[in-house]
Write a structure and sequence with these properties.
Layout: H1 4-15, H2 20-24, H3 26-34, H4 40-54, H5 58-69, H6 90-103, E1 107-108, H7 117-125, H8 129-138, H9 140-152, H10 158-168, H11 172-175, H12 190-198, E2 241-242
Antiparallel strand pairs: 1-2
Helix pairs in contact: 1-7, 1-10, 3-4, 4-10, 8-10, 9-10
Length: about 240
């Protein structure tokens, strides 16, 4: 049975910008999915997502990825996008997160942003199973919100977020109960893009919201302080990480 770290790396690969590597390694990735310590429904969901990434012209798959994750804030894979919008706190939060990555031995290519979800998953994969779980719990509300919004669009990418919540041990309905996804119609027009960037960001830390975390916020092993999730526009490059 594969370790949680291998499953996190698998999901990071599935959520990254589609590349020929996924297709080349599809058989091995399917084998990893089938032996992952996840509920059967979550394994089936990841397998379906992998199949979709391996079917048809790669350029079409990449275009679908762009249309989901790079057109507005609502589905951004930059975790800091979903809390404080254009907060001034982003700069220091980025520095703090980069320092944690460096301490864990994770080197980031130039021009990469540390809050990119696949990169964060690779960071969690460097720790032990409990530290990784706590790192997922730390962002469970964001994962649940994205799962809901992707499900509304009938996107198989929702399966990756459901799997992450399963690894965190957090029920999707519990994690997202205070932060229901907006029931917006799917609209990819330029006007809709402008509106998306004007959306008020969701706050997961404001006590006035009256909704506590679905699970106590505990500090992951090896991390000096809890992560601070703030915001930044989606980049046009796709981060890669090396150890």
């Amino acid at each position: 049975m594969p370790s949680p770290s291998r499953v996190l790396k698998l999901i990071a690969l599935l959520l990254d910008y589609p590349s020929p590597d996924v297709r080349a390694e599809s058989l091995a990735l399917h084998a990893l999915i089938r032996t992952a310590e996840l509920p059967e429904a979550r394994r089936d969901g990841l397998a379906a997502l992998l199949d979709a990434l391996c079917q048809g012209d790669l350029l079409d798959v990449q275009e679908r990825y762009d249309s989901l994750f790079e057109r507005g804030r609502a589905l951004s894979l930059l975790l800091f996008e979903h809390v404080h919008g254009e907060s001034r706190d982003r700069g220091q939060a980025m520095v703090d997160l980069l320092e944690r990555y460096s301490a864990a031995g994770l080197a980031i290519d130039a021009n990469e942003l540390p809050d990119y979800l696949p990169l964060y998953l690779e960071f969690l994969a460097l720790g032990d199973a409990e530290a990784a779980r706590q790192g997922l719990v730390e962002v469970a509300h964001i994962l649940a919100l994205l799962a809901q919004r992707l499900a509304q669009r009938e996107s198989l990418y929702a399966q990756a977020f459901e799997a992450l919540l399963a690894l965190a041990g957090v029920a999707p309905e519990l994690a997202g109960q205070c932060y229901q996804a907006q029931q917006e119609a799917v609209d990819d027009s330029l006007e809709a893009l402008d509106r998306a960037w004007e959306e008020t960001p969701v706050s997961f830390t404001d006590p006035a919201a009256g909704c506590p975390s679905a699970s106590p916020r505990r500090q992951p092993a090896g991390v000096e302080q809890p992560l601070q999730w703030v915001a930044q526009p989606v980049p046009q490059t796709h981060p890669r990480a090396t150890r």
